[in-house]
Amino acid sequence: MPLPFRIGFGWDLHRFEAGRPLRLGGIEVPHPRGLSGHSDADVACHALGNALLGAAGQGDLGAHFPDSDPKWKGVTGAGILSEVRAIVARAGWIPSQFSVFLIAQAPRLAPHREAMRRAMAEALGMDPSCANVAFATPEGVGALGRQEAIAAHAVAVLEPSAQWPASREAGSVEPGGSGGRSHGGREPPRSI
Ligand code: MG
Predict the structure, then answer these.
(1) Which residues in 136-171 are b (16+ Cβ under 10 Å) and which e?
(2) Which range among 31-35, 43-47, 163-167, 183-187 shows the weakest confidence by mean pLDDT?
(3) Fewer C-beta within 10 Å: the chain N or C terminus?
(4) From 3.40.50.720, 3.30.1330.50, 3.40.50.10810, 3.20.20.70, which CATH number describes the 6-169 domain?
(5) CA 174 to centroid of ligand 1, rounded, Å
(6) Is the pLDDT at 170 greater than 60, yes or no?
(7) Cα of 37 from ligand 1 centre, angstroms
(8) Residue 182 half-sphere exposure, CB side, CA atoms within 13 Å?
(9) pLDDT tens, 56-79?
(10) Separation of 131 CA from ligand 1 center, angstroms?
(11) How much distance in Å is there from the Cα of 170 to the middle of ligand 1?
């Protein structure tokens, strides 16, 4: 008997780059440098998107939003989450709960916790009370500690939508099913 919910894990990392705004968790955070990427490089939203896709058995962001596709140039983190919400809905699921964990030496992110929580929950059509945003510093260790990049981890829970039985019969919740694109044996595309 299948579980009445699904859990997914996601991760992402983006390097710092001068001259770009820092976008995290669906908002802009004041900082002298932003993150590098084909998109707005919102590492928190990308980790969460990977968790949601994983829970639905729909692969990863790189498969759905390759950085070779000009369609996704400059796309915001909230925009990605809206797209992911549609992908998991087609697979028969709706976001129920998530927790995002950002690892950054700087800037200090705690003052922005509630804004990030609201922005990401809103992009997914969720009540913010079902969302959590957490932070840690890498204690000066490694590339993250040297402020070369910011990384994020995320866990997401999906519950079946009203269309769940029909979707299951169509096989769309199976890994590699209709919603996910195959890498075709090539190197997987880089995520946005
Ligand atoms: Mg990314």
Answers:
(1) eebeeeeebeeeebbbbbbbbbbebeeebeebeeee
(2) 183-187
(3) N
(4) 3.30.1330.50
(5) 24
(6) no
(7) 7
(8) 4
(9) 999 999 999 998 999 999 999 999
(10) 20
(11) 30
User: How high does pLDDT run on average in the chain?
Assistant: 89
CA of 91 to the centre of ligand 1 (A): 23
Helix (H) or strand (E) holding 62: helix 61-64
Dist. CA 134 → ligand 1 center (Å): 18
* Token digits of residue 135: 């932070």
* Two tokens, residue 130: 């079902």
The letter for the amino acid at 100 is: V
What is the number of other CB atoms lying within 10 angstroms of the CB of residue 79?
18
Q: Cis peptide before 70, with omega less than 30 degrees from 0?
A: no
HSE (side-chain half, CA atoms, 13 Å) at 72: 25
Flag whether the pTM goes above 0.85: yes
Q: Contact at 8 Å (CB) between 42 and 76? A: yes
Q: Rounding to the nearest 10 degrees, give the CA dihedral for residues 27, 117, 152, 19.
A: 10
How much distance in Å is there from the Cα of 90 to the middle of ligand 1?
23
pLDDT of residue 129 exceeding 60, the answer is yes
Please name the residue that has the structure tokens 């995002």.
100
Distance CA 116, CA 36 (A): 20
| Mean pLDDT of the region 94-110 | 98
